[in-house]
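Researcher: Quick one. two chains, 937 residues in total.
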Amino acid sequence: MSIMGTRVVRREDPLFLSRGATYTDDLTDERLTGALHLTLVRSPLAHARITAIDVEEARSAPGVVAVITGAEIDLAPALLFGGANKGMVRSWLPTDKVRFVGEPVVAVLTEEAYQGQDAADLVEIDYDPLPAVIDLKAAASDEVLLFEEVGTNTSNGFGLKDEFDEHLFDDCEVVVTKEIVNQRLAAASLETRAASAVWGEDGRLTLWCSTQAAQSARDEVAGWLGVDAAQVHVITPDVGGGFGAKIGADPEFALVGWLAKHTGRPVRWNETRSENMTGMVQGRAQLQTVTIGGNRDGKVLAYRLDVLADAGAYPRLGAVLPMFTRMMAPGVYDIPKVESRARVLVTTTTSTAAYRGAGRPEATAAIERSMDLFAAEIGMDPAEVRRRNLLRPEQFPLKTKGGAPYDSGEYEKALDAVLDAAGYTGLRAEQQRRRDAGEVVQLGIGVSVFVEITGGGAFSEDASVEVHPDGTVTVLTGTSPHGQGHATAWAMLASEHLGIGIDRITVLHGDTDLIPRGSGTMGSRSLQTGGVAVHQAAGELVELAKQRAADVLEANVDDLEVVDGSVNVRGTGQGVTLAALAEKERLQVDSNFDSGAPTFPFGAHVAVVEVDVESGKAVVDRIVTVDDAGPVLNPLLCEGQRHGGIAQGISQALLEEVVFDADGNPLTATFADYAFPSAAELPSFTLLDMATPTHLNPLGVKGIGEAGTIGATPAVQSAVVDAVAHLGVRHIDMPTSPLRVWEAINAAASEGDK
Amino acid sequence: MKVRMTVNGDDTSADVEPRLLLAHYLRDTLGLKATNVGCDTTSCGACTVLVDGESVKSCTMLAVQADDATVQTMEGLSASPEDLHPVAEAFRTEHGLQCGFCTPGMVMAAVSLLRETPRPTEREVREGLEGNLCRCTGYHNIVRAVLAASGQDPDAVIGGGHATEAPSGGVEVAPGFSTGSGA
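Model:
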């Protein structure tokens, strides 16, 4: 029986559930014996000139080995993301100016961890405050510049050269426009960032760090330190969540490496949560202006998306994510005219980069909100408006107005499935009953239909499969799991070909000496690239084994089959084990799979919320989802990815927001302040299955890591608005907190009184 | 200051700074690294251990406050990786963990919850674990795991949560594996 598609429990778990996983801060590697502890003194101001730094008192504190300022660092300031405005570089430790609260200014190295904070408290830094730049429109005005020498706060522009078409909406009976906030979020992985470094006698740096992509972390750190990539050996221990924020390296990692070199001692760094909430990259942070036009029969004719995106102080991956937002702008709809543009601006805040969805949730939120606004304007059921505009299955494959090469999709089927399973008609009847009765707790129903792009960052991935003489198997992969379960899933793929149980298959990742090439785990790319590469490598190993066995068994290759770890001559008792073949000659295959294109998973969500119209509090009662990412390798793991995504999607809609005050002070820098959801705020989820394959890889698989987030956010936001729509409310920005809902109800009421 | 406590059945003692957190005593003094520290505001619960049988966030307790106490961490729960405690085993079976960082605290909190409420409802599980944050699972499978560990059928308590097909039968493609178009 095939292992594919079965609910295999994880190989990782027995250790994780007994001794615990080994994260970077848990390492007891002997090379780190006697390591110094790094404590960073960070800027308390969002924008200021540094006028003096006094570290003398700190240097004489107990346990202090070194206190380092930027004056001692011989590395050039770095452009942290190659595609950003070239002048927007970050100093390793600035001596002239700080640009966000949390920017590291002084490094303190101590023998013991607790001594670090004591010494850090003795560092004196004088600042001359400058005006903070928080608001994106203020940033765009260039009145206050973060980088005076650059002369603008704009890092990147997409579609800015062409003017919008002034006739775009000429044919439309109805046109609606709205400014929408897609608020800034913290990835909030439970493990904060951490790195440990030591230089060997061979002149090589060994760097352990919490990352989603060891190979790109190696390349970035080497580049920042000005050494050859071959001089850097990155090892990824277990990683306690990433969600996009741990792609590659952070500048602190290189600093840890530099400090280890400078002191000649190993150095360990593990940040606090407060540091993490200001120092680790954040996500979303777009101000969108949507305009949608169409006819009263429900047909949408034109759509425009105008984006201001927040890069934070030093542009990183967030500088290019609006490209994905533009590409996915029309979503699942067949809209004749679509145009978009995006301007990426620096502000005196934490840098932005990928966070679960990374550019696509922003596109989906914009178009789905637009569809609701349009539906409300023409007085049509929002699910019906969607249905009338969906791309039809026979149109695939196609290139969209956003330029995306959609591979396959059954959008109406997904919509029908969730409407049916949720009992949409009944829900609308119950909603009407509560409205008619004027009940305090109203019902809201939100529908989203979405498509996203997965595997869009890197199409190619390596894999190696080796059968050892003892019958065990080692799989090397360039993907980098941090909760996704590749140790189990990739073992299943190899097991399927080799007929060797997954308990005898070890999957290794994240060690750049062992696996020099790889693109890591991000953008829901792993199965469709790295997984397919393992599948392919194991298949090639079977062919290699058959050829070798043909000699041993004096049989025709075509008569051989691999069953239960042996190459057998079909219909006879003759055979030779793969282990025996490996004993004669190394039995190993390196393979690479390149999909050449991304895939486009899709789905539909129905969210049901209850809103107390007196307090404004919204509670998600139910969410029913289709997240179709093609055939499912391991439903247990796939559902886990969907659950996590749905929770983060609900949470963006209802709860979470990174907030800065007008002076750039972060108001959500701890878990006591940031609205991280607990089990009590979430319901159990109802998942429906659909599996529409892609033609882009031999397994037919697409990515599942981000789907739930992308679909759930607009469905829940829409449901909250829908619950109070009868009171005259058309839109509430996220998070739809009780205060915002209550204010929207009151604003609508006073509007109605006029 | 001298501190002495029984941890996972072993007598331990050390001279510690009065400010040393119990979490750091466990991790750094004793080398028991399963207990994680995920925040600095007693919000996340990754550091949850049992002190004299009660669940405690060990980042909010000084080591000296646990003097003479009996402490249990996740390392002391199961006999071995192959012989997991029923609660840990339920987390595995129900896929109640992904990255694993919240897991040691979550499992210990679940053990404590089930001691106090042996047959909890879904709501009781959700509210009982409110002090333990997880970013990966959306809690869906954690709740199932705790229900399963209590001897209940999670599907019966929650009402499914995973519909294998839409009531209309409108979903034609079966879940599971195919090798793609035509293959």
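Residues 96 and 138 of chain B are 10 Å apart (CA to CA).
Researcher: Thanks, that's what I needed.
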